[in-house]
Amino acid sequence: MDTKRKVIIDCDPGIDDMFALILCIRHLDVRGIVAVGGNTGLEYTQRNARFATELTGRPDIPVYAGYDMPMLNQLVRATEVHGSGGIGDIEIREPEKKLEKEHGADFLIRTFMENDDISLITLGPLTNVAQAILKEPELKKRIPEILCMGGSATSGNATPAAEFNILVDPEAAKIVFESGIPIKMAGLNLTRQNHMDMADVEQLRAIGGTVGDFAADILEFSVKNSDFTSICDACAVAWWVDDQVITKSIRTQVDVETKGEFTRGMTVCDWRDFMGTDPEQEISREKCWNKYKTSGNVEVAMEFDQKRFREVLFDTVRSYKEMN
């Protein structure tokens, strides 16, 4: 009996998204991929998602195109990080895998209205999910859980306060975080605990194979661009790929700031009951007080086993080679 978790992945591939897809397609039951504009434009993110299904030998997984532009925000991209085509300086052919005709948001609505046992992974801006909720509010009761790579329990990257995925479309993120859908947030405070460098590139090259060579190429671009990389989206999906990778999480209230001059796009985490006396630990891992009694809408990932993650990642890439 297949006990793999059934998921839909909403993403904006993206170098780290590609690593996440490599992990998810091998370890989870991926029922569909929806592309969104984010790291680069939709023209490339949907192409890269289709390419990922072919790369991993799963062209049967349907791929849908969602929204290219944020709901209200001025357009923000990350092509300086991911390259104009989203996968560094790698040139790929147009995939034979065809894009589904149905709009990605409509696919989300249809899937979750018709199924009770499929969860959602989001690795990019939350535009598709928010638009689907606005179109069909019953989705708030139909999506069992969202695993979200986005936000931060501490500081941002796109700005001092905001992480990229949330900053791209803060209004969409606000809709999703206020929806009442259970959310697991794997933000920058977690993913910064993973550093990949040229030694990891060489390890992927040593594994070889179609997946290993491609992974080495895109990781090398990312490492050369900034000395090291965290491949954030892959760290996030590890929560469901191997539950021993995330070693500590805390449930608290998280709200998305949409109006602040300096804090727009910030995921504002309520840590008031978690402020202890240790000056070297700004956020205690257990409640120090029970004064504010926030119920908590988000499970925030806090601690990460980098050694375990690397084992899972490299073993997964190696498994693709063994399948060929």
How is the topology of this model organized?
Elements: E1 6-11, H1 15-27, E2 29-35, H2 42-55, E3 63-65, H3 79-82, H4 104-114, E4 118-122, H5 127-135, H6 139-142, E5 146-149, H7 164-168, H8 170-177, E6 183-186, H9 188-191, H10 198-207, H11 209-226, H12 232-241, E7 246-252, E8 254-256, E9 267-269, E10 298-304, H13 306-323
Parallel strand pairs: 1-2, 1-4, 2-3, 4-5, 5-6, 6-10
Antiparallel strand pairs: 7-10, 8-9
Helix pairs in contact: 1-2, 1-11, 1-12, 1-13, 4-5, 5-8, 10-11, 11-13
Pfam families: IU_nuc_hydro
Protein name: Nucleoside hydrolase
Domain Inosine/uridine-preferring nucleoside hydrolase: 7-311
Number of helices: 13
Return Rg in Å.
Answer: 19 Å
The averaged pLDDT comes out at 95
The portion of residues forming beta strands comes to 15-25%
GO molecular function, one term: hydrolase activity
Protein name: Nucleoside hydrolase
Pfam family, one: IU_nuc_hydro
Domain Inosine/uridine-preferring nucleoside hydrolase: 7-311
